[in-house]
Amino acid sequence: MRIDKFLSECGLASRKEAAKAAKAGGVTVNGAPVKDLSGHIDPERDRVAFLGRSVEYRKFVYILLNKPEGYVSATEDKAHPFVTELLPEEYRRMGLFPVGRLDKDTVGLMILTNDGPSAHRLLSPRHHVEKEYRFTCKVPLAPDAERIYAEGITLADGYECKSARLLADADRMGGRITLTEGKYHQIKRMLGAIDNRILTLERIRFGGISLDKSLERGAWRLLTAEEERALLYGE
Predict the structure, then answer these.
(1) Which residues contact 125 (CB under 8 A, 6 or more apart)?
(2) pTM summary value
(3) What is the distance, to the nearest Å, from the Cα of residue 115 to the centroid of all Cα atoms in its chain?
(4) Catalytic hit among 103, 115, 195, 212
(5) How far is CA 229 from the centre of its chain?
(6) Rounded-to-integer distance, Cα 223 and Cα 64, Å
(7) What's the CA dihedral at 121, 231, 11, 7 to 10 degrees?
């Protein structure tokens, strides 16, 4: 891989910025300064440093974000703040994007990555990846709400949802719901179909990844190796 491409894919600098840094002696390969970044390296074996910082190559990055209210699930938006704005420039340069969508007023777990094929697979209806949400509602849930959801509720527009698991709180003013699909405003529309309304909604699990309760709203971290395996391989 070309050195300038390596630095660009790691999100450290554009090729132009990297070339400028190299001319000033800011790029080294195996301890030796490199002025010409058109040369090739082995990302797995060669040791690269940029402006004194050792660079570890990762083809794909997976980030867990605790999405706050008011942010849209996008990489850019002219009218609203968007989730990738919460990441450092280093990661934004790598082309990270949200895996799926959460409504602007929905909070909680969001996965961001630059791994397009895996994101496509995780969102494919054929793979039935579970998404679990915590919610509160305007009025108590109907006594037969669990059965209706399990059988597959029909929305106002006639769409028949797949079976969903609903676990109501003791006071039935909220609970947890687990889906294997992700239609537009689905949970809100599902509550509307049984004459109720969502007040708050938080995603707490995506597949085998649970929301890290130590992360404040708007905070993020890289997935651990164990979490990556759970996300990608269901381990």
Answers:
(1) 180, 181
(2) 0.83
(3) 11
(4) 103
(5) 15
(6) 6
(7) -90
* CATH number assigned to the domain covering 130-206: 3.30.70.1560
CA–CA separation, 9 vs 5, rounded Å?
6
Which of the listed CATH numbers 3.90.25.10, 3.30.70.270, 3.10.290.10, 2.40.360.10 matches domain 3-55? 3.10.290.10
| Tens place of pLDDT per residue across the chain (235 aa) | 889 888 887 777 778 888 888 889 999 999 999 998 988 988 888 889 988 888 887 789 999 999 999 999 999 999 999 999 999 988 888 889 999 999 999 999 999 999 999 999 999 888 889 999 999 999 999 999 999 999 999 999 999 999 999 999 999 999 999 999 988 899 999 999 999 999 999 999 999 999 999 999 999 999 999 999 999 987 6
CA-based torsion, 100, 198, 187, 208: positive or negative: positive
| Catalytic (active site) residue 103 | yes
* Cβ burial, residue 30 (10 Å; 0-12/13-18/19+): exposed
**DSSP 8-state assignment for residue 140:** P
* DSSP H or E stretch at residue 90: helix 89-92
Length of the chain: 235
Six token digits for residue 48: 């690269």
Q: What is the DSSP letter of 188?
A: H
